[in-house]
Design a protein that fits this description.
The chain has about 650 residues and is an alpha/beta fold. It is about 30% helix and about 25% strand. A 7-stranded mixed beta sheet has the order 5-4-17-16-18-19-20, with helices on both faces. Strands 7-6-8-11-12 form a 5-stranded parallel beta sheet, with helices on both faces. Bound molecules: coenzyme A (COA) and adenosine monophosphate.
C-alpha cells in the first residue's frame, strides 16, 4: 500500500526522468551539476574511467572547497547572512557567525595551520566536541589543501591512536574537553595517551580552551607540557596573531578528508573523499533531496565526528549558502524531551535531520508529544531520518505528531550522501513506511543473491549492490591501500559496489533495507564492528572464546551483546568479570560502544567444523523462531543458551 503523506510536487522533469538521465547521460548530467559550484578551472569531463574499478570525477577540474563554502557567498554580497548557529544546551551558549565571520575565522586558523608546517596533502586530526571550532578546523584544512580526519569524541585513546598511526598527521586539533550530561569529558589526557600509544608523526597539538568560548567552569583534568617531540599551542593565542591564508587551488581528485569507519575487522577503514565530486554532489543534494536553498536553515542533529556531521552539518549547507546549526546536547534530558523542538522553533529550522534513535528517545519520555505543543515548529518542511533502520512504528508516531513529511533515507559513510531517498526537490513521491524510497540520481541499485545472480522478484531479499561507477561524492578509496578498496567492496560482486546491507526492492522500485550481511552492527546510529569488540574481550585472561552480536534494543535499534566462555580452570566471580569486560571495552573502544550486556556460558553453539552459530544465537536472544542447524555440533548447547537468556519465571 502506498501512503501519500504529503503534497505531491512535480517539477517539469519528474523523478524518473531525472534519475534515468543521471545514468544514461551520466557525463552531461554531472557536468551540468558541476556548474553549481565555482571552479578555478572548470572540468571538461565528468567521469574518467581507467578501468571499471578505477575511476574519478571531474579529473581535469581544479577548485577549493572552502572557497565554495565561504568566499563565494561573501563575494556574492551575502557576507552578513548567518552561516553557522552554535547552540549549546549544555552551557546555554548561543553564537551566530555570519558568512563573513566564519570566513575570517577559517582564514585565520588556516594561517595557524600553515605557520605550523601544514601544507597541501598533509593530514590533520580534528578531535573536538560540538563547538564552532570543529567547523572552523575542517574548513581551514580544506582551505590550504590539507586533509582532515575528524575523530568522534566518544572513542577511547587507543582508537584515536589507531587513526593517528594510519593517517600519520603532523598536527592534532583538539579542545580541553567536551560536555556530556552530568559530566565533563577531558580530552587532553586521551590525546596524551594516544600520542604515547602511536608511532610519533605528530609534532604539534593545538588546543581550544573551552573556557574561552563559553566560560565553562568544567574541570577538565590534564595540563600537558611541551616535550622534545610535541608542542602544545593555545588555539586562541595562535588565532589572534595569525596571518589569514588564502584558498589554495587543488585538483578535483585531491583528498579533502579521511573519515574512519568500522569494517568487519578490528582495523577501521579510512574512507577517502575527494574535493570536486564531493562539492558537486553535496551541493546538488541540498536542492535535489532536501529542497533547501540559500535562505533556509538546515539542522543535522548529529555530530561532526560522523559522516552525517561532515556532509550535513558542515559542507552541504555551507556549499549551498544556507544556515547550519551546530548543537551541543541530546534529544532528551538537556533539559527535556522538547530540546529538538526548542531549537527548531528558536531558529526557524526548515529541515531537521537526525537518527531514528533520537526520535525513539523522545517518544519514550514524551509519548504524547506534549513538549512539541510548547514550541512553534511550523517552519519545518520535512524531517529526514537516517543512520539505522526506521521501524514503521516510530515512523507513524512521529509522522502523525509532526504534520510535515517524514523521510527515511539510506546512506553510508562510504557514499557520503544518500543512496535512496524521497527526492523532495525533484518530485515528492508517496511515502511507504519501512522503505527508504527510491534510488537517488546517480545511484543504480540492484539486488543480487549470494552467487551474484540478479533477484528481480519484488519483495525478495538479497544483497543490495550499486552498479559501478559510484556517483560523485562517494568514496575514492581507502587510505593507505588501493587494494583494500577493491577487496572490501568491489570483489564480491564484479561490476558492483557491495553495500554490506541486505534488503529488497518492491514492484514500484522502493528499497527496503533490512540489515547487514557482515559483522557490522548499528548502535544508536553508530556503526561498530563486532570483530573489534571480540578482539577486546579476548584480551581478558579468563576468556577462552567469545562472540559479540548485535541484538535488538528498543531504544538504540541494536546493542552489542557479548557471549563468553571461560578458560578451563578459571574461577571468577561472574559479576566482577562482567564489570571488567565492560571496562575493557570502554578503555579500548570507548563509551560510544555502550557495551554492558555480557553473558557467561559453558559453551558457545558451534557447527561441527567449529564455526560459531551467530545468527542462531541472535535469534534466540531476540526471541525469534529459529531452526536448529543440521551441522550443529551439539543441539543441547542451544537449549542451555535459551535457558540462560530467558530463564523460566520463578514463583
Ligand atoms: N564524547 C564523549 N563521550 C560521548 C560522546 C562524545 N561526543 N557521545 C557519547 N558519549 C558517551 C556518553 O556519555 C555515554 O557514556 P556513559 O556510558 O558514560 O553514559 C556513552 O558514550 C553512550 O552514549 P549515547 O550513545 O549517546 O547513549 P546515551 O544513553 O547517553 O544517550 C540517546 C541515548 C538516545 C540520547 C543518544 O544515543 C542519542 O542522542 N542518539 C542519537 C543518535 C545520533 O544522533 N546518531 C548520529 C548518527 S546520524
Ligand atoms: P554509517 O556508515 O555509520 O553511516 O552506517 C551506514 C549503515 O547504517 C548502512 O550501511 C546501513 O546498514 C545503516 N543505515 C543507514 N541508514 C539507514 C536507513 N535509512 N535504513 C536502514 N539502515 C540504514
Amino acid at each position: 500500500m502506498i501512503e501519500d503523506t504529503g503534497t505531491t510536487r512535480t517539477t517539469p522533469q519528474g523523478y524518473r526522468d531525472v534519475w534515468r538521465r543521471s545514468i544514461d547521460e551520466r557525463d552531461d548530467f554531472w557536468l551540468q551539476a558541476a556548474g553549481l559550484i565555482d571552479w578555478v578551472s572548470a572540468p571538461t569531463t565528468a567521469l574518467t574511467e581507467r578501468s571499471p574499478t578505477d575511476y574519478s570525477w571531474f579529473a581535469d577540474g581544479t577548485l577549493n572547497t572552502s572557497y565554495n563554502a565561504l568566499d563565494r557567498h561573501v563575494l556574492a554580497g551575502r557576507g552578513d547572512h548567518t552561516a553557522l548557529i552554535y547552540d549549546s544546551a549544555m552551557t546555554g551558549t548561543r553564537i551566530r557567525l555570519s558568512y563573513r565571520d566564519l570566513l575570517d575565522r577559517v582564514a585565520r586558523f588556516a594561517g595557524v595551520l600553515r605557520a605550523n608546517g601544514v601544507g597541501r596533502g598533509d593530514r590533520v586530526i580534528v578531535y573536538l566536541p560540538m563547538i564552532p571550532e570543529a567547523v572552523v578546523a575542517m574548513l581551514a584544512c580544506a582551505r590550504i589543501g590539507a586533509v582532515h580526519s575528524v575523530v568522534f569524541g566518544g572513542f577511547a585513546a587507543s582508537e584515536l591512536a589507531v587513526r593517528i598511526d594510519d593517517a600519520r598527521p603532523a598536527v592534532i586539533v583538539t579542545a580541553s574537553g567536551g560536555l556530556e550530561p552530568g559530566k565533563a569529558v577531558a580530552y587532553l589526557p586521551l590525546v596524551q595517551k594516544a600520542l604515547e600509544l602511536s608511532a610519533g608523526s605528530v609534532h604539534t597539538v593545538i588546543v581550544r580552551d573551552r573556557a574561552t568560548i563559553d566560560g565553562s567552569a568544567a574541570d577538565y583534568a590534564g595540563d600537558p607540557a611541551d616535550d622534545a617531540a610535541v608542542r602544545w599551542l593555545d588555539w586562541a593565542d595562535a588565532e589572534a596573531t595569525a596571518t589569514p591564508a588564502d584558498p589554495v587551488t587543488v585538483a578535483s581528485t585531491d583528498p579533502l578528508y579521511i573519515l574512519y569507519t568500522s569494517g568487519t575487522t578490528g582495523n577501521p577503514k579510512g574512507i577517502i573523499r575527494d574535493n570536486g565530486g564531493h562539492a558537486v554532489a553535496l551541493t546538488w543534494s541540498m536542492r535535489g533531496i532536501y529542497d533547501i536553498g540559500p535562505d533556509d536553515v538546515f539542522w543535522a542533529a548529529s555530530d561532526v565526528g560522523w559522516v552525517v556531521g561532515h556532509s550535513y552539518i558542515v559542507y552541504a549547507p555551507l556549499l549551498a549558502g544556507a544556515t547550519t546549526i551546530i548543537y551541543e546536547g541530546k534529544p532528551i534530558g538537556t533539559p527535556d524531551a522538547g530540546a529538538f523542538w526548542r531549537v527548531v522553533a528558536d531558529y526557524r529550522v526548515n529541515v531537521l535531520f537526525t537518527a531514528p534513535t533520537a526520535i525513539r528517545a523522545i517518544r519514550r519520555v514524551d509519548p504524547d508529544l506534549a513538549e512539541l505543543a510548547r514550541h512553534d515548529v511550523s517552519s519545518l518542511t520535512a524531517l529526514f531520518l537516517a543512520g539505522e533502520r526506521l521501524d514503521p512504528e516510530t515512523f507513524h508516531w512521529v509522522n502523525d505528531g509532526l504534520h510535515c513529511p517524514v523521510v527515511d533515507h539510506w546512506w553510508q559513510t562510504e557514499t557520503g550522501w544518500a543512496i535512496c531517498a524521497n527526492p523532495r526537490g525533484i518530485q515528492e513521491l508517496p511515502t511507504k513506511p519501512g522503505s527508504t524510497a527510491v534510488p537517488v540520481p546517480g545511484y543504480d541499485i540492484a539486488i543480487l543473491d549470494s552467487k551474484g545472480a540478479p533477484i528481480t522478484k519484488p519483495g525478495k531479499d538479497g544483497n543490495i549492490v550499486i552498479r559501478l561507477p559510484l556517483p560523485p561524492g562517494s568514496l575514492l578509496g581507502i587510505w593507505g591501500g588501493a587494494d583494500r578498496f577493491v577487496d572490501a567492496y568491489l570483489t564480491a560482486f564484479p561490476g558492483y559496489y557491495a553495500t554490506g546491507d541486505s534488503g529488497h526492492l518492491d514492484a514500484d522500485g522502493y528499497l527496503y533495507v533490512m540489515g547487514r550481511t557482515d559483522d557490522v552492527i548499528n548502535v544508536a546510529g553508530h556503526r561498530l564492528s563486532t570483530g573489534s569488540l571480540e578482539e577486546v574481550l579476548t584480551r581478558h585472561p579468563a576468556v577462552a572464546e567469545c562472540a559479540v552480536l548485535g541484538v535488538h534494543d528498543a531504544l538504540k535499534g541494536q546493542r552489542a551483546a557479548g557471549f563468553v566462555t571461560l578458560k578451563a580452570g578459571s574461577v571468577v566471580d561472574h559479576d566482577l568479570l562482567t564489570a571488567e569486560l565492560v571496562n575493557l571495552v570502554r578503555e579500548h573502544i570507548g563509551p560510544v560502544a555502550a557495551f554492558r550486556d555480557v553473558r557467561i556460558l559453558d559453551r558457545l553453539p558451534k557447527t561441527r567444523s567449529g564455526k560459531i552459530l551467530r545468527k542462531t544465537i541472535r535469534q534466540i536472544v531476540d526471541g525469534e523462531p529459529y531452526k536448529v542447524p543440521p551441522t550443529i555440533e551439539d543441539p543441547a548447547v542451544l537449549d542451555a543458551l535459551a535457558l540462560a537468556v530467558r530463564p523460566p519465571p520463578t514463583d
